Amino acid sequence: MRNLLLTISFDGSRYHGWQVQENAITVQQTMQDAIERITGSRGNIVGCSRTDAGVHANMYCCNIRTESEIECSKFVTALNAVLPEDISVMKCREVDFEFHARYDCKSKEYIYKIWNSPVKNPFLHKYSYQHKYPLDEEFLNRQAKQFIGTCDFSAFCASGSSVEDTVRTVTNAEVYREGDMVIFKVEANGFLYNMVRIMVGTLLDISAGKIKPDTIDEILLSKDRNRAGITAKPEGLYLNRIVY
Amino acid sequence: MRNLLLTISFDGSRYHGWQVQENAITVQQTMQDAIERITGSRGNIVGCSRTDAGVHANMYCCNIRTESEIECSKFVTALNAVLPEDISVMKCREVDFEFHARYDCKSKEYIYKIWNSPVKNPFLHKYSYQHKYPLDEEFLNRQAKQFIGTCDFSAFCASGSSVEDTVRTVTNAEVYREGDMVIFKVEANGFLYNMVRIMVGTLLDISAGKIKPDTIDEILLSKDRNRAGITAKPEGLYLNRIVY
Lengths: 244, 244
What we know:
Chain A is α+β, with helices and mostly antiparallel strands. Chain A has five helices and ten strands; from the N terminus they run βαββαβββαβββααβ.
């Protein structure tokens, strides 16, 4: 029995997130179907994170325990041959039998893409969120710095979430521009449900004057979801990097 | 009666090209539906070019004669509000009543995107052609220069095409790289059917050693479609710029 760590990327547009669900196509199920076709047996594949419907991944990791003896490089080629075009396996390597893609994850990085133009881009509607009014990325970058640190992120967690420990350590948060695209990048040891999307919504609400500048620290201390901004749409969100 | 010139862009993935067809969704028909919703009357919209199924446009021009008195800037907003997300109207301006989007076009520029990596990119399968083996863009750029000039492009025209005058003037042809993306860019006063895709196929066949280097001049002189390369897939092709 071997434990294989797969690094994949996927366009989440067609999927109802990672996690297997009844009556909806998910990335996990599509991966399991492909692995079953290659190895002859369906095992349980462990993902590094749940993702929401429509969310993308430039990098996503998952591990699978298998009796298959197929060499890692051949496993990559075989999986890519049977997977749909919107999921790509980039790497495969054998890891300790105890390795767990979710529990052993040290940090994750997300990016959120905002298409900042009054003109809609027909190629990007599934791959970014359009914000028509000019954004000041330097101002937003200074605001985003308030997310850095170890604290209780309850105010930035979807209400109704049942997680007990809501303390996370954010090691980087920044906003920058590439042409008409404004990008929010954030790295942490873990994220609460909808945390990145609420961070982005809060930055956009600050930009629109709906939330006062320099109050993110206060919002964090309040632990009150109602004081933070909207939950930004899923299309702009990408899991970008996983560190073990 | 006014004559309006619309500049649009579209993701061609879902469409069977520009031209109205029976039993297939096209960009022209989708534009006419939108114009009918806004102005109350369907007129004939004239496009600058036919495009094949799956081909994209960063810039496409079309004109429509209409009795509508809606201001140009409002027409843009209204059309974008009713059009699907994969077609965007960027500009509208009033032109001479005699102006014709196809006949008055002075030159067109196309680009063709080749994703040059052994690893498939799940975000680009509808937006580029994947070529797994390394391409030497400087070598291909030198080969592409042979396309520049005024000559009979019959060898680079889909067989069965009924066009009479097969002489075109290519004013620019180049190959360059942006990271893993290799791009072919070509500008001419007009293009024959499948001309850009056969040019790209020929460059790829030269790269693969199936066609001898430095023979594009000879292939042009031969006027023989069989001596040129394959017709590259439509997904990588973008109409990029229209000059009037």
